[in-house]
Design a protein that fits this description.
- This protein is mainly beta.
- Helices cover 6% and strands 40% of the residues.
- The strands form four sheets. A five-stranded antiparallel β-sheet has the order 3-6-7-12-9, with helices on one face. It has a three-stranded antiparallel β-sheet with strand order 8-11-10, with no helix packed on it.
- A hairpin with a 2-residue loop joins strand 10 and strand 11.
Length: 167
């Protein structure tokens, strides 16, 4: 995600021309692929200061490590617009994850949007004939009350949770 934003000043996407591109094209038009949305969210809502986000998560074994976390998350603070944005991925294939954060230092911030990108079929794609097969929705479940943030992240989902200071 945005873990090394203090050192990485620019990033780019490989394969921008079809094959595995975030935007696919044909003679008839263009459509957004599933990978388009996380890049768009990070680009448009990942502005500001990346906070040191400590993530404690259950783990699983994989080819590279015995302790890969099911949850990966990072929070970005936009002081100018008084917003916090949590970007979170639940990598579990069959379990939702309950997330909690202590946000007492951000008193007065309330969840205004919880975007979720998910699909029951992990291999689902958007196609020319079905360009809206996998698209984000705003039916995520999260809240921040008195500095106690909680959310439920569905299995194998990308989540963007926006909080804004309520005046």
């Amino acid at each position: 995600l945005l873990r090394h934003a203090d050192r990485v000043k620019i990033a780019c996407l490989a394969q921008l021309v079809n094959v595995i591109a975030p935007i696919m094209t044909s003679d008839k038009g263009a459509w957004r692929q599933t990978t388009f949305y996380p890049f768009m969210h990070a680009s448009t809502m990942g502005r500001g200061r990346v906070l040191n986000t400590v993530v404690i998560s259950p783990t699983y074994e994989c080819k590279f490590t015995d302790e890969a976390p099911y949850l990966d998350a990072v929070v970005v603070e936009d002081e100018e617009n008084e917003t916090l944005t949590l970007f979170a991925v639940n990598k579990s294939l069959d379990e939702g994850i309950s997330v909690s954060m202590d946000l007492r230092q951000f008193e007065g911030y309330s969840v205004c949007e919880h975007i979720v990108l998910e699909h029951s079929d992990l291999k689902a794609t958007n196609t020319e004939d079905n360009p809206y097969n996998v698209v984000p929705h705003t039916k995520g479940v999260s809240k921040n009350e008195n500095g106690s943030f909680t959310a439920i992240l569905n299995p194998h989902s990308w989540n963007v949770i926006r909080m804004k200071r309520v005046k």
